[in-house]
């Protein structure tokens, strides 16, 4: 059971709830903070002071005053009018991540909503009510407005939601699980919509998968190194220490561990070792390592974002130390600012997608080496009867296509901005686009690495036919591949082989071969 405090959620927690059904509730101390914050909003709603989103309209309509009698209608209208998402719907795990992240940011007690809103978001997770949320429509400031509006609609009995594999209207979904629609009070519609929870949910799940992929890529690269008779001399600890980037040193240590006790490597040691391998082999620590350092930066950004208040305005119940320009009341301080702006996440996800793409770019080059008999010394296209059989020729075509597609997807979404809301919101982050593209690049690269895995396994079959043993880690990785995919003796439908290899890559089931 996760106890949401708004302060200590981790990417692993997000995955546990989104993918594995872990339960979550609202921490008692967080519930108390929310109640105190709510009292501030209720006092403001009853007063004549203009407070954005509480007693005024939204965006360029912030100067329009709203009568106290219309406060509830204002919040409902906001949710309904902002649900303009388009395109394919997010998958269930992403929606679950969004529900959890929205609940956690509200649990900080700075959005001014009732604890009942968090309870209901967590009810949806517990009961399996998953709002239908289109992927497209957010510019990443004022947060992910359109997607979060779709996430919120079923709370009030509107929109659509999936329950038990069936898509229903929001009202029918609530009835199915025995819940009544919520009536939104002052500020609560805005509290549900303002924030970065779409881009952060997509980005967090992509990060978790990318970190697994980076470790698996070390295993597959070690297999290719052995198959190409590459040397481990370039992975020496003293050499890596001369340029001590953390990811580089970690990757080199993994390669040394995977290649330990290799009979294929024995011939490279001493004065007779191969002087230089191609960059895609020799520079694995430098390239994979740089990607891992980029992912580490991304993790740091997302860790902060998971536990941030990204609403507007924010409520500070104890306003004694507030900036004097803030709206101070007897019960606290309200500040209208821009914490909803997705720029930190946008930049991090653009960085991440470039880092992930590089894992695929160098993997495709190793695949090309394995398939070219003039460079590898292996049978052409890794088939004993080249010509009659095409072997693995087309695997590299597919890898090349995916790598080329990634060159388009890695264009930085955050480099663009189109003003919205009559130029009131005149610089936006496009963070949700960066996150979605990072996820798409990741899926492509997982396949590219899976294709390399198939080629490396086939190559090792030939390379070890005389009884020479590869490194301990490489040998075990090869064995696990052969449990699922047989050696290719003649051309066959490659679809099932690719699917099996992709499952090995995506599941992270070879990560235990790496040093602890």
Summarize this structure briefly.
The protein is mostly helical. The protein is built from 20 helices and ten strands. Helix 1 (11-20) links the parallel strand 1 (2-4) and strand 2.
Explain how this protein is built.
By secondary structure, this protein is mostly helical. It has 2 domains: 2-195, Fumarase/aspartase (N-terminal domain) (Fumarase C, Chain B, domain 1); 204-299 and 343-513, Fumarase/aspartase (Central domain) (Fumarase C, Chain A, domain 2, Up-down Bundle). The chain has 20 helices and 10 strands. The protein has a 3-stranded antiparallel beta sheet. It has a 3-stranded antiparallel beta sheet with strand order 8-10-9, covered by helices on one side. Strand 1 (2-4), helix 1 and strand 2 form a beta-alpha-beta unit. The longest helix is centred in the last third of the chain and has 33 residues, at 431-463. It is elongated and about 85 Å long. The two termini are 27 Å apart. The mean pLDDT is 93.
- State the distance separating the first and last CA atoms: 27 Å
Per CATH, what is the topology of the largest domain? Fumarase C, Chain A, domain 2
Provide the domain count. 2
* Major sheet size, sense and barrel closure: 3 strands, antiparallel
The number of helical runs is: 20
Number of strands: 10
Structural class: mainly alpha
Pick out the low-confidence regions: none
What topology emerges from the helices and strands here?
Blueprint: E1 2-4, H1 11-20, E2 24-26, H2 28-46, H3 71-82, E3 86-89, H4 92-107, H5 115-127, E4 129-131, E5 134-136, H6 145-152, E6 160-163, E7 166-169, H7 170-177, H8 188-193, H9 197-227, H10 237-241, H11 246-258, H12 263-266, H13 279-282, H14 284-306, E8 314-316, E9 327-329, E10 332-335, H15 343-371, H16 373-376, H17 393-409, H18 431-463, H19 472-484, H20 495-507
Helix pairs in contact: 1-4, 1-9, 3-6, 4-5, 4-9, 9-11, 9-14, 9-15, 9-18, 9-19, 11-14, 14-15, 15-17, 15-18, 17-18, 18-20
């Amino acid at each position: 059971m996760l106890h949401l405090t708004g302060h200590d959620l981790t990417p692993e927690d997000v995955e546990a709830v989104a993918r594995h059904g872990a339960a979550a509730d609202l921490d008692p101390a967080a519930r108390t903070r929310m109640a105190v914050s709510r009292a501030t909003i209720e006092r403001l709603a009853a007063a004549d002071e203009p407070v954005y989103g509480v007693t005024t309209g939204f965006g360029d309509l912030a100067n329009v005053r709203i009568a106290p009698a219309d406060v509830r209608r204002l919040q409902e209208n906001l949710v309904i009018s902002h649900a303009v998402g388009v395109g394919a719907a997010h998958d269930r795990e992403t929606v679950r991540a969004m529900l959890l992240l929205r609940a956690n940011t509200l649990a900080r007690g700075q959005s001014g909503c009732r604890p009942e809103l968090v309870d209901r978001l967590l009810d949806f997770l517990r009961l399996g009510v998953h709002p239908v949320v289109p992927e497209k429509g957010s510019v990443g400031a004022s947060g992910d407005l359109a997607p979060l509006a779709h996430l919120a609609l079923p709370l009030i009995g509107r929109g659509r939601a999936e329950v038990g594999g069936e898509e229903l209207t929001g009202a029918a979904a609530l009835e199915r699980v025995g819940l009544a629609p919520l009536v939104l009070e002052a500020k609560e519609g805005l509290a549900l919509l303002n924030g970065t929870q779409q881009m952060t949910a997509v980005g967090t799940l992509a990060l978790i998968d990318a970190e697994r992929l980076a470790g698996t890529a070390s295993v597959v690269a070690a297999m290719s190194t052995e198959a190409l008779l590459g040397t481990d001399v370039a992975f020496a600890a003293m050499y890596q220490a001369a340029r001590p980037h953390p990811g580089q040193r970690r990757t080199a240590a993994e390669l040394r561990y995977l290649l330990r006790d290799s009979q294929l490597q024995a011939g490279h040691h001493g004065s007779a070792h191969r002087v230089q391998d191609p960059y895609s082999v020799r520079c694995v620590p430098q390239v994979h390592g740089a990607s891992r350092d980029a992912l580490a930066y991304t993790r740091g950004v997302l860790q902060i974002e998971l536990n941030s208040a990204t609403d507007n305005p924010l409520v500070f119940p104890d306003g004694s130390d507030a900036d004097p320009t803030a709206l101070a009341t007897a019960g606290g301080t309200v500040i209208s600012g821009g914490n909803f702006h997705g720029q930190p996440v946008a930049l991090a996800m653009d960085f991440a997608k470039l880092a992930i793409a590089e894992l695929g770019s160098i993997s495709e080059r190793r695949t090309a080496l394995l398939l070219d008999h003039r460079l590898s010394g292996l049978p052409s296209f890794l088939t004993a009867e080249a010509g009659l059989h095409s072997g693995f020729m087309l695997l590299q075509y597919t890898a090349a296509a995916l790598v080329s597609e990634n060159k388009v997807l890695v264009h930085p979404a955050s480099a663009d901005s189109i003003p919205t809301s009559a130029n009131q919101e005149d610089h936006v982050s496009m963070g949700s686009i960066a996150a979605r593209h990072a996820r798409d690049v990741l899926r492509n690269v997982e396949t590219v690495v899976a294709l390399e895995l198939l080629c490396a396994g086939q190559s090792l079959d030939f390379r070890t036919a005389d009884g020479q043993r590869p490194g301990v880690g490489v040998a075990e990785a090869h064995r696990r591949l052969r449990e699922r995919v047989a050696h290719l003796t003649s051309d066959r439908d490659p679809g099932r082989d690719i699917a099996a290899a992709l499952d090995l890559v995506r599941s992270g089931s070879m990560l235990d071969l790496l040093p602890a």
